[in-house]
C-alpha cells in the first residue's frame, strides 16, 4: 500500500523530491511472518520512485533502547520516539532558520553519487538513559562522537564493515559553525579508511539554530554506506527461506 502511494505521488508530482522513512524487517523482532515478502516487493518501488530512503529496522531500535537508553521493556512508543526524533532532525532545516541551512534537494545532491544508491543509514544524538540525562554535558564533540558510533545506527548494519560514500550531519542548537567544521574534519581524518577516496569532501554539515524540545542541542546523522548491503542481504536470505519452505509444503501436500 505504501509503495503504491509513492508510485501515484510520483506520477502526479514528478518534479518533487520524495523522501521515505522505511522500516525493514529483522529476524529478532518480528510479528508478521510475511514481512520479508513485503520488504522485497517494496524495494523495487523504493529504488525507482523514491529519491531518498532512510532505512530503519526494529532490531537496531530495540538494541538502542536496551543498550543505550537502559530500558528493560521498550514499547513501540519508545521505538517511535527514536524514529520521530530522527525524522525531526532530518527535516529541521525545512522548518526552521539556520546558519548553514539545507533542503531535500541539496541533501540529495550531497549524498547520492549514483541515482540508485539512495538508501541511507541514520543516527541521532544525544541518546542517554533517562536517569543520567541531567548529568550529561552536551557539547559538539560529544554529539559528534555519539552520532558516528556504530552502536547508535538505527539500521542493523555495521558501518565498520563497509565504507562511506557520503555523509551529512544536521546539528541543532546554539553552536559555532567553526567548531562544527573542526569536528567534521577530525572525524574524517581519524576514520579516513572508512571513507572512499574517489569522492572528495564527502561529509557535509548543516546547522539549525532551533534545538529540539527539551534539549539544548542535538544532531542527526545520515550516511550513504556500502555496509547497507548487510540489511539487503539479510532480507534476501529471509525471502529465499520463505520461498523454499513454501515449495516444500506444496510438495508435501
From TrEMBL:
Keywords of the record: GTP-binding, Microtubule, Nucleotide-binding
GO CC, one annotated term: microtubule
Gene Ontology BP, a term: microtubule-based process
Gene: TUBB1_2
Family designation: Belongs to the tubulin family.
Highest rank taxon of the organism: Eukaryota
Ranges for domain Tubulin/FtsZ 2-layer sandwich: 100-237
Pfam families xrefs: Tubulin, Tubulin_C
Function in brief: Tubulin is the major constituent of microtubules, a cylinder consisting of laterally associated linear protofilaments composed of alpha- and beta-tubulin heterodimers. Microtubules grow by the addition of GTP-tubulin dimers to the microtubule end, where a stabilizing cap forms. Below the cap, tubulin dimers are in GDP-bound state, owing to GTPase activity of alpha-tubulin.
InterPro entries: Beta_tubulin, Tub_FtsZ_C, Tubulin, Tubulin/FtsZ-like_C, Tubulin/FtsZ_2-layer-sand-dom, Tubulin/FtsZ_GTPase_sf, Tubulin_FtsZ_GTPase
Organism of provenance: Vitis vinifera (Grape)
GO molecular-function term, one example from the UniProt record: structural constituent of cytoskeleton
Name this polypeptide is given: Tubulin beta-1 chain
